[in-house]
Amino acid sequence: MQKLKVDVAVIGAGTAGLVAYRTARAHGAHAVLIEGGPYGTTCARVGCMPSKLLIAAAEAAHMLDAAPGFGVHAGEKRIDGVAVMERVRRERDRFVGFVLEGVDSIPAGDKLRGHARFTGPHTLVVDGADGQDVDLEAARVVIATGSTPTRLPKLQDVGPGVIISDDVFDWQDLPRSVAVIGTGVIGLELGQALARLGVRVSVYARGGSVAQLTDPVVLRNAARVMSEELDIHFQAEIVGAEQDGDEVLLTTREGGEEKRARFQYVLQAAGRTPNVTAIGIEHSGLELGTNGVPLFDSRTMQCGTSHIFIAGDANSERPVLPEAADHGKIAGDNAGRYPDIRAGLRRAPLTAAFTEPNIVTLGASYKTLCEPGRLKFAVGQVSFENQGRSRVMLQNKGMLRVYGEYGSGRFLGAEMIAPRGEHLGHLLAWAVQARMTVEQMLDMPFYHPVVEEGVRTALRDLAANLAKGASDIDPDAIEPGT
């Protein structure tokens, strides 16, 4: 067995791991990057980029469906599923290629191929992919092992028709029908995209949640808007499934009644699970939370007071790519200059589902603001049903709710399902991070006619409610499971 001693060992070569490795190296540390799976990052291979390629194809198909509303008639629509999926795979591979170019630039001696597991707080064994194991001693460790799609126990070992989101992007053609399990970001994005591409889609939710929303008013609006286009079954329990030829017979329980339906595929999209259970975490000496993830400081990524740091999806804090990059930067900085631990830059939270309308949350969520001990806050809102530019585009669906702090007037956050919401979310997240007041935001320029005028309407409503000086928020209004 090869023996190796390093300053920093980074477990995982995804977004967080790559950034952590490079940042630790910038401090002069001797660092190694350990990866047991394919290089290329979750985002590029099976996440953000291939899903947006599928969504882009769906948007093109939907534009043809929407065109008659403008008096434009394009003729018979034809969707070539083989061509759709060929472009998804081709462009996906191109994005992965960019990542691989960066990996190739890393010195070969700094890359260890194989599965790593702790044997002690400072020691790891890497089961070498080439059959050559490595006994590794590391002064500091960064855990950046990512996450994997959650698999439901009642759908285990059913057959090839039960899949996870990773499998979608290797399809050679669009399927006839898909049952999507989960109304989170991944489930709704893929479900709507496939439906717009002519696939028969049904979506099943254990509760009443929609993406990452916690505001009960926005949540109800989003459930209605998404249900107008998608066959969504809320409060549905998955009883079981069986493979029957090239179809899956799915059994659910809805309102106390068992129902059965056939689909070519059953897609599990019920969240992601941090990859921390197979790395010998029990030998690390770290204190673990109830989810099995080491307890850590979100400002420094340090696990307890140890020499171990955790970054990206592995810590399950904010499992999106920009946060993984920030986590990696903070973890790599602190691992590189240990024991000089410093808090890193944490940006205003921002999460978007690329459904149509977009579903976006930013800053403090409604649920967080309603926690005991929080300062009182006011709410402003706008519906996009009669908002000028939204009606012009025939995208007049959804609503925006914005939150402000009594006394200071500081803008705190927002939740929305809105046309062009991905852009509105950035605008408002910047305001949160800049600690702007609602009045300062209203002093900013607003052009006409733009969707952003809806933001101004919501902010004016918020300003009026802040001026009243008393909170009318009912924390008990938060729906269970949000």
Give short descriptive properties of this protein.
Enolase-like, domain 1; dihydrolipoyl dehydrogenase (NADH) activity; 3 domains; NAD; 21 strands; disordered C terminus; oxidoreductase; 482 residues; single chain; alpha/beta; five-stranded parallel sheet; 31% helix; FAD/NAD(P)-binding domain; five-stranded mixed beta barrel; flavin adenine dinucleotide binding; nucleotide-binding
Describe the model.
The protein is α/β, with parallel strands linked by helices and 482 residues long. The protein has 3 domains: 2-45 and 89-148 and 273-337, 3-Layer(bba) Sandwich (FAD/NAD(P)-binding domain), CATH 3.50.50.60; 153-270, FAD/NAD(P)-binding domain, CATH 3.50.50.60; 350-468, Enolase-like, domain 1. Helix content is 31%, strand content 26%. The protein has helices spanning 15-26, 42-46, 48-66, 81-104, 165-168, 185-196, 216-229, 321-337, 366-369, 388-392, 421-433, 438-442, 452-468; strands at 2-11, 31-35, 111-120, 123-128, 134-143, 147-149, 162-164, 177-181, 200-204, 231-233, 236-244, 247-254, 257-263, 265-268, 272-274, 308-310, 350-353, 358-363, 377-383, 399-405, 411-418. A 5-stranded mixed barrel has the order 1-2-3-4-5. It has a 5-stranded parallel beta sheet with strand order 7-14-8-9-10. It has a 5-stranded antiparallel beta sheet with strand order 17-18-21-20-19, with helices on both faces. Helix 1 links the parallel strand 1 (2-11) and strand 2. The longest helix is centred in the N-terminal third of the chain and has 24 residues, at 81-104. It is globular and about 70 Å long. Mean pLDDT is 95; it is low at 477-482.
